[in-house]
Specification:
heterotrimer; A mainly alpha (293); B alpha+beta (351); C mainly alpha (274); B: 351 residues; alpha+beta; Rossmann fold; OB fold (Dihydrolipoamide Acetyltransferase, E2P); 2 domains; five-stranded antiparallel sheet; C: 274 residues; mainly alpha
Chain lengths: 293, 351, 274
């Protein structure tokens, strides 16, 4: 690269590289380290991995946290993944038609609609989740409308259960599905659709045989962008879920803040990263492609 | 009965009239060209025939059936797109088979038809390739095979040669006409390139600003343009503008009127233009018999076998002459010459 | 345009349902913030009393100021780091550790917040006992955490914008005698300014919005606005929170709309000039 002097190059690479190494990579390694430590009633609440004693170095590395996790927490991982997968599918089913309609909207409207999709993303996540509490609670708007219309005898249990968690996930992550779908739909060459219809394909066949296969990268990107954060979600299950709502994010929080068991929380986090590695790698590929496209 | 009948078709977008009151008919087996500058409405007309746009007024009839309300997928018409519009997720054979699949043609017949079509365009060895692995010329052939596979009554070609480089264009033009003769399908081709239209088509319709200006054989269009627009757009032309008098066309650049080709039913005093193709001009150092204009050579553009000589008269009127290069060799810049032509070679344009 | 494709009615329906779903809760929340009744579910007439009550609530006010301060610092830091990173990834196609660098830039975008928060807290605890810095946790640690995540978002936007950037502009400037640093300052950065503006705003709103990471890495002295909201929301819905949420939504929407408008205008100008 000719247009950059060596010291400028060193700054441009070195500054963010060093920062991320210290404040992203190193912390992850520390988490991995603490996940094999023993819990202890001390400050900090775990035993060092190596302790110097009179007899020399004594190792305190243990896999007990992972054993415990495999024992008691597998069901939490299962339900987190299940919840996230269901939310991803629902987002796809809702998001595709919306993205399609936006992509087909006339010029100015397209920008406005896209802006409206992105706006909630810029506003507070917490507030948007909170807004549903007022709608869903037994004396909330939805129940009062249902009661008023005589559709139900008594308020439906809409809040603090699997339904409200699912609703919250879909609601919060829908924009992440719509945006990449919109992107791949607008990149679609209009003449391909004309060609398909010219060759005798009815509208539904045009969708199945041309539009869908050509927007699969967008579908995949959208699904990953919804699925990955949904698996590790904390705020939604915490505010909208009931006591029986099992999500990993919540489990990490509980272990850390309520049980003050840092090694257990770390082990759960490491296992979560392990579970998410495959989709994370996929996501990185898609994001990289979007970034350079 | 004509295969394609367009009756008073009009189509406008927001503020522009893309196609206005166009009527034309195309006979079975013709190689028909829609020629015009970009934005003249020729592509819109093609899209109207294919059904991608709906008419504001008028009718489109194909083989006796009114197509005005028929969606594109149900029309017996196929199109070769300018961008080729090959499906990137399907291989060559899959692209060619696409239309047949929509028809529900059974597998065996479909495979046979695909093979036949690929043989027709000499792409049999490429049937498993993806579009991005093909050269421009190969893509063009696949697009042609795909559009012909359903054996449409009418094949529409949108600027079929525009994306090819010059040398390939010549070859492909010959191939296209060859294939058209072999399959016998009626072709309607849109082009902005007059050379292409003259070289391929059996009949040409020239369009300008959404209107049909002239329809006729290539020779008609070239030799007998009916307007200044056609004369100027189709090939190079020298235009003399002036008023008619008893003996000819009076122009300020000549001391006497230019003789007219044959008898004309026009009233004296009328302002008209006289069009003359550059290859009809001859240049000589001496004043030849009959009418001639005095001019000086401004520049000589060598193009191989032929050279273009740019001339100017004393009053500043610019002319161009196409001469065989050996004839132009004797000329030098600044040389004074006499430009003359046979009166019958000029065309009087009233529009 | 092929108007008929996909059915206009179907598309309108999809838009109505989709946007209805996205905006219904927000609309209800805004409406109830003007409710005169203390009961959040019963309409007691129009009133702005909760906005008045909000202004007098010192807990929220202090938290809002903390959040603003952290947001501005974190976004600015993120802008510097992310711009460097975006430029580096775009301009230098080969250097040692580029793969790792790319991974570190992408991963924070997708790793669950709860892991980022936990990891950073453990780092700060460890660092304090190893090197004595940072002394305790508070605004500084939250700022560092938010800047880290924000930088990755800025880098993505900068890279995307640089990808569509005409390199011959750089070369022309060099050819005309500009030194590399001047090229960066006078040509490249102005050219990618839309990405810089939206990058800063994105980092700022992410910081303003973050609950999970801040909950981990903050100390008792620094309560951010989401933390304050969270602790009162856990207790239940209150009209004051509705008012706060409305104010927040209005401010952010206005800012984002402004940013969009500015960028759209620049884009138009550029298109016209190009």
């Amino acid at each position: 690269m000719t247009s950059v002097t060596p010291w400028l190059r060193r700054v441009l690479i070195g500054l963010p590289f060093l920062w991320l190494a210290v404040f992203f990579l190193l912390p992850l390694l520390i988490v991995a380290g603490i996940s094999v430590a023993q819990s202890e009633d001390a400050i900090p609440p775990f035993a060092p991995l190596l302790r110097a004693t009179a007899a020399g170095l004594e190792s305190h590395v243990t896999l007990a946290n992972y054993r415990e996790l495999a024992h008691g927490c597998l069901v939490v991982y299962g339900s987190s993944l299940g919840n996230a997968a269901l939310a991803t599918l629902i987002c796809l089913v809702i998001g595709y038609p919306v993205a399609f309609a936006i992509a087909r909207a006339p010029g100015m409207w397209r920008h406005i609609l896209l802006f409206l999709v992105m706006l909630p993303f810029w506003t507070s996540f917490l507030i948007r989740v909170y807004a549903w509490i007022a709608l869903l609670q037994p004396s909330g708007l939805i129940n009062r409308l249902l009661l008023g219309a005589g559709l139900v005898e008594e308020p439906l249990p809409l809040l603090y259960n699997a339904f409200s968690v699912q609703l919250g996930l879909v609601y919060s992550y829908l924009p992440f599905m719509i945006l990449p779908l919109y992107g791949s739909l607008t990149r679609l060459d209009e003449s391909l659709l004309d060609a398909a219809s010219d060759l005798g394909a009815r509208p539904w066949r045009v969708f199945v045989a041309v539009i869908l296969p050509l927007t699969l990268p967008g579908v995949a990107a959208g699904m990953l962008l919804v699925f990955i954060p949904a698996v590790g979600e904390f705020v939604i299950p915490d505010l909208l879920g009931g006591p029986d709502t099992l999500m990993i994010g919540r489990l990490v929080w509980q272990e850390f803040f309520e049980n003050v068991d840092w090694p257990a929380a770390s082990a759960i986090a490491v296992a979560l990263v392990a579970v998410l590695t495959a989709p994370l790698l996929l996501a990185q590929r898609f994001l990289a492609r979007e970034g350079t496209a | 009965m004509a295969l394609l009948e367009i009756v008073a078709a009009s189509k406008s977008f927001a503020t522009t009239e893309a196609v206005y009151q166009v009527s034309l008919s195309v006979e079975r087996g013709e190689f028909f060209a829609l020629l015009g500058p970009s934005g003249c409405g020729k592509t819109t007309l093609l899209r109207l025939i294919a059904g991608f746009e709906t008419l504001d007024t008028g009718r489109i009839v194909i083989d006796g059936d009114d197509m005005t309300e028929v969606p594109p997928y149900a029309r017996p018409v196929n199109m070769m797109f300018q961008s080729y519009a090959l499906f990137p997720h399907l291989d060559v054979a899959g692209n060619v088979a696409f239309g047949l699949k929509q028809e529900g043609m059974e597998r065996r017949r479909r495979d046979a038809r695909v093979a036949e079509m690929l043989a027709l365009v000499q792409m049999s060895d490429f049937s498993r390739r993806r579009p991005h692995e093909l050269s421009g010329g190969q893509k063009q052939r696949v697009a042609l095979a795909r559009a012909l596979a359903k054996m449409p009554k009418l094949l529409l070609l949108d600027e079929p040669l525009a994306a090819l480089d010059r040398k390939l264009r010549e070859e492909t033009r010959l191939e296209l006409t060859g294939i058209q003769e072999r399959v016998g399908t009626t072709f309607v081709v849109v082009t902005h390139d007059q050379e292409e239209a003259l070289g391929m088509a059996s009949r040409i319709a020239v369009m300008n600003r959404g209107r049909l200006v002239q329809t006729g054989s290539p020779a008609d269009i070239y030799e007998r343009p009916n307007s200044r627009f056609v004369a100027d757009f189709v090939g190079a032309v020298n235009l003399f503008e002036g008023a008619l008098d008893a003996s000819g066309l009076a122009i300020p650049d000549a001391d006497r009127p230019i003789p007219l080709p044959g008898a004309l039913r026009v009233s004296p005093g009328m302002r008209v233009a006289l069009a003359l193709r550059p290859e009809k001009l001859s240049l000589s150092p001496e004043h030849p018999a009959g009418f001639a204009l005095a001019a000086t050579v401004q520049s000589i553009g060598y193009q191989g076998g032929q050279s273009t000589v740019h001339l100017a008269t004393a009053s500043g009127l610019r002319l161009r002459a196409h001469l065989p290069s050996h004839a132009a060799q004797g000329l030098a810049r600044g040389a004074a010459v006499w430009a003359s032509w046979a009166p019958a070679d000029a065309v009087v344009l009233t529009e | 345009m092929t108007g008929g494709r996909g059915g206009a009615g179907f598309r309108l329906g999809a838009l109505a349902l989709g946007f209805g779903f996205l905006y219904l809760p927000i609309a209800v929340l805004v409406a109830y913030s003007f409710n005169n009744s203390r009961l959040v579910t019963i309409w007691g007439g129009f009133s702005t009393r909760w906005y008045g009550a909000l202004i007098e609530n010192e807990k929220f006010l202090a938290a809002a100021l903390t959040s603003l301060e952290i947001g501005i610092m974190a976004a600015s830091l993120a802008l510097v780091l992310g711009t460097c990173a975006g430029l580096a990834m775009n301009r230098f196609t080969r250097f040692r550790g580029r793969l790792l660098f790319g991974f570190m830039l992408m991963a924070p975008l997708v790793v669950p917040e709860i892991i980022l928060g936990l990891a950073l807290l453990l780092l700060f605890v460890a660092a304090q006992s190893w090197v004595g810095w940072p002394a305790g946790r508070g605004m500084l640690t939250v700022t560092i955490a938010h800047a880290t995540v924000g930088a990755c978002f800025v880098a993505v936007l900068v890279r995307a914008q640089l990808a569509g950037f005409d390199r011959s502009l750089d070369e022309a400037a060099l050819d005309l005698g500009a030194r590399p640093f001047a090229v960066l300052w006078q040509i490249t950065l102005p050219e990618i300014s839309p990405a810089l503006i939206s990058g800063w705003l994105l980092a700022f709103t992410l910081s303003l919005d973050d609950l999970v990471i801040a909950s981990f890495v903050s100390g008792p002295a620094a309560t951010t606005l989401p933390m304050a909201v969270y602790s009162s929301v856990r207790v239940g819905v209150t009209p004051e929170i509705n008012a706060l949420a409305t104010l927040f939504l209005a401010t952010v929407s206005a800012l984002v709309a402004l940013a969009f408008w500015v960028m759209a205008r620049q884009e138009r100008r550029r298109v016209r000039a190009g």
